[in-house]
Amino acid sequence: MAASTSNIILVGMPGAGKSTVGVILAKRMSYVFLDTDILIQAEQQRSLQDIVDNEGHLALRKIEEDTLLSLHVHNHVIATGGSAVYSEAAMLHLSAIGTIVFLDIDLSTLERRISNFGTRGLAKRPEQSLSDLFVEREELYRKYADISVPCSALTQEEVCSTILERLSGYQPDRSHSG
Question: How many helices (H) and strands (E) does the chain have?
Fold first, then answer.
């Protein structure tokens, strides 16, 4: 991969495994791992849930967008927050600096994995259910993804192997027009 697109950017729903897969993938690739949710919390000196509770989900989305737009790194595996795809500017920036990999997971698997939906610090409307959020975001993940990996039936190691296999044969299409 060219230096300007040397990063692997993981997108997907909360609970899809972006952080866990990201750590494993970074180790296997000898890359640096960066979790943008942790970066936001460190920069803001508060939890994502605190931001949502005190300023609302749109404030968290704006902070996330600003954080993503500020990334200028190479040879990183970047786990984004689940709501990164709401910002076209951020997604176009990420696409310019790396390959976007959608960790595609089905709703029933997410429901089993997420027990703290109401307190997880999600950038969602207060009345929005996990199902509503899933439907709303899935189209956006697919729109920006260079590579999609169905993860529901795979272990995290298998997800990483699949990503590496797909990356080896991947030729970037940077249009993302649809």
Answer: 8, 5
Considering the entire predicted model, what is its pTM?
0.87
Q: Give the pLDDT confidence of 139-168 residue by residue, as tens digits.
A: 999 999 999 999 999 999 999 999 999 998
For 31, the enclosing helix (H) or strand (E) is none
Convert the pLDDT of each residue in 40-50 to its tens digit. Answer: 999 999 999 89
Alpha-carbon distances of 160 from 13, 19, 41, rounded to whole Å: 17, 12, 26
96 with 5: CB under 8 angstroms?
Answer: yes
- What is the per-residue burial (b if ≥16 Cβ within 10 Å, else e) of 36-68? bbebbbeeeeeebbebbeeeebeebbbbbbebb
Check: CB of residue 109 under 8 Å from CB of residue 23: no
Domains of the chain: 3-168 (3.40.50.300)
Local structure of residue 78 (DSSP, 8 states): E
**How many residues are listed for the chain in this entry?**
178
Rounded CA-CA distance 45/17 in Å is 24
**How would you class 143 by CB atoms within 10 Å of its CB: exposed for 0-12, middle for 13-18, buried for 19 or more?**
middle
Count other Cβ atoms within 10 Å, centred on residue 93. Answer: 18
Name the phi and psi angles at 79, rounded to 5.
-95, 115
